[in-house]
Predict the 3D structure of the following.
Amino acid sequence: MATLTNGSAELSRLRKFTPQSGAPWALLNVTVIDGTGGPAFGPTHVVIRDSRILSVTNKHDSFGGLASGDYSAVQPSGVREEHCFDLDGAYVLPGFIDAHAHVGAPDQVETVDYVYKLWLAHGITRVREVGSLGIPFDQMREAAIRSRSGELLAPSIHPYLAFGAESDEPVTSEKTARQWVARARERGAEGVKFFGAAPALFKGALEETRALGMGSACHHSQQSTPRANALMTARWGLGSIEHSYGQAEVMYRDRLLPATPADYNYSDERTRFAEAGKLWTQGAGPSDPAWSDFLDELIALDTTLVPTFTVYSAARDAERARNRDWVADYVSPQLARFFTPCDHRHGSFFGNWGTEEEVAWKGNYKVWMQFVRDFSLRGGRVCIGSDPGFIHSHYGFSFVDELELMREAGMQPLEVISAATLRGAELLGIEGEVGTVEANKIADLIVLEENPLRNFKVLYGNGHLISDSAGNQRRTGGIDVTIRNGQVIDSRDLLRQVRDTVRDLRN
């Protein structure tokens, strides 16, 4: 692999910088993409002290200049020269928020540090950990506490608990469903992840989450959708709809349930995902009243969509997914084994995956993406989630892939960045604290040399392959620095550590 560019001397100096408590420091002459959806602006000075952004000052105040006749740079006062970093046009963005993340169970990754490093190296400063799959919740809660305090080098973790998990008694009634939710809140869960449940239990549990100020998310299992589809659960107060399930079924015109073969077995992973690739092409299209009615009601109910396009994209082209540029250097042996086709591992269904299945999924994506785009155009909140650790979705890398897929769905680059930052903060209910580059907000930021609005590929940790007029190829891009809660993190060094770890594990 060609060597990534080193960047400017000032970026190199920034990567080694350790902020001092109480002392302000500044990023000078940067171009800011602030996460609101507004256009980039600069040159700008961003001043930080401890964990907060003190100020965001446009260097050339055109209105002030007209009044004073002075267009000279406005230098931040009170910042020592050695604490100023003149980045001369580098780009600064809010830290990314992965709205559908999993830390990784022991059968997926050798160590959670591998996961944390890949997330931070890709600018992911917060994750909504939906379900703590394969990890005891108390362990996840402890990681969340340590990540918030800065003791743990990881994104800030917002932990959800899967409905009914780790219960002392079966959840079999509305009363026990409500009691389970209350207990989950006492244990430190910020929200509940549902896969489906009997309607009375599901409805009661959702009402309890709302009463307790908790978040809620649902992967509408195909087993549960006939009793509680995405419209029903949205009416009950569901916070966010995950993935692609339970939505197309609302709009079927000539059937109540999707057509499935007579010998369909949901426990057969390959069959399950082959049939899932046909869900959206059986229902209504954009011209049907059912399409508009469903969209309008979801938006009126303030329901969020977290599509996680990336986790199913391997179904469109399995060979490409197995051979992405980053796989050789960054996918650990244990994760590679988990992705290997196997009847007993969730999402490892590619043992006999062929042309017909891939063509079906491509058609599925076309309709599904149009639905998400129409939802966004009507004012609905769409967030970025990568669901890493399953179906060739990789930690960090697949978050960037999700940005590209949102662009494929028709969202403009600034919309996509906003979905990855501000909209994720809104979903978590912390938009007053993070999600945009503004004064008084937590200093969760990303710094890189190249413009991601021109090409999201420059956000991949392994960079982007380019060639000059002579045909010489090299890799460029990658995030230089991730700032999490005011802490400067050398993204390139984290990637080097991961590469070394993967190499050592293979030897």
User: Anything to note?
Assistant: Confidence is low (pLDDT under 50) at residues 1-7. The first helix runs from residue 9 to 15. The longest strand covers residues 41-49. The two ends are 19 Å apart (CA to CA).
